[in-house]
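Following up on my earlier thread - several people asked me to post the actual chain instead of describing it. Fair enough. Here it is, all 225 residues.
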Amino acid sequence: MSDFPRIITLLRKEKGLSQKQAALELGVSQALLSHYEKGIRECGLDFAVKIADYYNVSCDYLLGRTADRNGLQFETALKPAELLPNKNNAVLAANKLLILNSIEIIFGLLEQTSCKGIHAEISTYLMVSIYKSVRLLYSANPKNPQAMFSIMPEVYAGLSSALQAISETNAKCLSQAKSAGGFAGLDSGTAPYLSPDIISKYYPDTSSSLYNLIQKTEDKLKKLS
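Reply from S.P.:
Thanks for posting it. Predicted structure:
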């Protein structure tokens, strides 16, 4: 239950509860809840069910077995054979759905902000990611004509990464109400209030893809630390 301490701590903080208040309402001592949140002690099944009901999430979510709070397991909406001639591409089909649905949410969130700079910088960041991926696959066969691209193959990767870094930096500055890239920063008062519950409410058909993408990405990141 390595994810359990982190998840119950985040759920408590998300609801603005003190450890003392949560412990009181859960019927345990603050010291015991602290031990659970720090991973010093493991709770029993009864308490796992109780805290799942308390935070209105599934036990699978508490255990980190799914990124969906209701415990839904991710399934692809498309059959692998519908995507590519190769039938052995179930993972590819799943990843495609995760990415496409998550991008839909990103642009939905962008539409809720009035900051043209953030629109531009995040769009550039995503476009460069696609450009780099396409060029890598296109260039895998040296016989493919390179006239499709105007940037020399020796430098495109470095320039692309530099542009992404600049776009990410500018977007971060803009999100913190600072001017960057020739754009005025985002007024913090106009930034949308978000939480997993809100995202699930407004994006019921695609939110589970986003949660799974986050989980898959963080699993890979943890392996680097």
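The domain at 4-62 is CATH 1.10.260.40 (434 Repressor (Amino-terminal Domain)). That should answer part of your original question.
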